[in-house]
């Protein structure tokens, strides 16, 4: 029998606060059991569960693993704008004039993630 990935776990300084950001980013909610001050917080959304675990040391270097987000009902550019409005920071803009490319952002604790084109945008440029 094979193993399944149950969670992607992210170390952080404030589990509840960072999980709250990601719940908004993924248009979902925190687990009903999570409260401010908890050392762990869980965000479950279709396709992925993110577990945030408080650790004492701060983030020091670039992530070795990161999330790539693909908007479902917004364009890539609309999604980048929305996420920045939620507290993300634009780190590296790799969007191209022809619509290809991606944007690299950081969540409120500095964890990098990318926003790619939506499926509709990909299909429009594939023709």
Helix content: 10-25%
Total beta strands: 7
Q: Tell me, what's the shape?
A: globular
Please state the structural category: alpha/beta
Integer-rounded radius of gyration: 15 Å
Mean pLDDT rating: 94
- Tell me about the largest β-sheet: 4 strands, mixed
Question: Layout of helices and strands, plus pairs?
Answer:
Layout: E1 8-12, H1 15-25, E2 40-45, E3 48-54, E4 67-69, H2 76-86, E5 89-93, E6 103-106, E7 112-115, H3 119-126
Parallel strand pairs: 1-3, 4-7
Antiparallel strand pairs: 2-3, 5-6, 6-7
Protein described:
- It is a single chain.
- With 127 residues, this protein is an alpha/beta fold.
- Helix content is 24%, strand content 27%.
- It contains three helices and seven strands, in the order E-H-E-E-E-H-E-E-E-H.
- The chain has helices at residues 15-25, 76-86, 119-126; strands at residues 8-12, 40-45, 48-54, 67-69, 89-93, 103-106, 112-115.
- The strands form two sheets. It has a four-stranded mixed sheet, covered by helices on one side. Strands 1-3-2 form a three-stranded mixed sheet, with helices on one face.
- A hairpin with a 2-residue loop joins strand 2 (40-45) and strand 3.
- The protein is globular and about 45 Å long.
- The mean pLDDT is 94.
């Amino acid at each position: 029998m094979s193993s399944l990935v149950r969670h992607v776990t992210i170390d952080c300084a404030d589990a509840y606060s960072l999980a709250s950001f990601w719940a908004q980013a993924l248009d979902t909610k925190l687990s009903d059991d999570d409260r401010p001050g908890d050392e762990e917080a869980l965000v479950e959304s279709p396709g992925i569960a993110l577990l945030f675990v408080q650790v004492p040391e701060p983030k020091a270097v670039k992530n070795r693993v990161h999330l790539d987000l693909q908007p479902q009902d917004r364009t890539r550019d609309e999604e980048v704008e929305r996420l920045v409005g939620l507290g993300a920071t634009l780190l590296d803009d790799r969007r191209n004039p022809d619509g290809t490319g991606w944007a690299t952002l950081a969540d409120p604790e500095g964890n990098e993630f990318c926003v790619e084109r939506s499926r509709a945008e990909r299909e429009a440029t594939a023709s």
